[in-house]
Amino acid sequence: MKILPFSFVLACFLLTLTCRMGFAQSLEPVPADSLTESQIESLMINGYEPLQAKPGETLMLTVKARSETIIPPYPEEVKIMTRWSIQPESGIRLDKSSGKLSIGEDVHNGTEYSITAEVKTRKGWKTLDKHLYIYTSAENPFVGLWEDRNNNIGELWFRSDGTFSVTAHPFEVYKDYWGTYRYDLDKKSIVFEINGGNKIPEDKDLEGSFEILANGDLLLHDLSFGTLSEKAGRQNEYIFTQNAMKLPVRRRQKEFAALSDEEVLAIESDVAQAFSVQEK
Known about the structure:
By secondary structure, the chain is α+β, with helices and mostly antiparallel strands. Helix content is 18%, strand content 35%.
């Protein structure tokens, strides 16, 4: 049995303790008067990602700022005077003081809303904007975070605004490449177009076919995301399962057993919003 050096064990303990404290602190709203100049400039609605929701769902709109104490810089909720508004107003119900937003059951897939928050900072009033995209699983079955069964693609992320990202080996906010996608439900065809990336394989072929299997898994075939690792090589067929969204937090939950279920759910929301900061 190999015995680890005490210095290494101590370093791991301190790192775990620091992360635990950082996550716990991030659950409490940050007072507006404690924000730095750069945090005021970073103010945003709910996080880095465009918002998405299904008909019938309820969202709680919040103002957040980029953390300067947590690495990577996840968004932290800010306690600040806010006036909320949304356009168009049809199909939704918004509490303009609390930010509680309810989506009507009859709102159609593809409907887009523009959310505005007027926030009062020590530098005066600041206007924040955010888009909300409505989708249904019947008309867009892709939305969500998927994981390759063979573990060659750690994250395939479809968003309801028509964007995607691919990452072979996920690490915090890193992405291999990203872009837009379009599909035809009748023809069962799908096309990916790359807008940018950190690692874009030359042997990619991003036009192919899809099938939603009986168990809900996603089969992509006659296409290739390219050689993203020498070990995996190039594939022409993938089977993805949509259970990856909670993996990063569930792993942390095992480390940080002191966190309650409510705290874990709050962190999941922040982590999900933070993953694409690399793309901004």
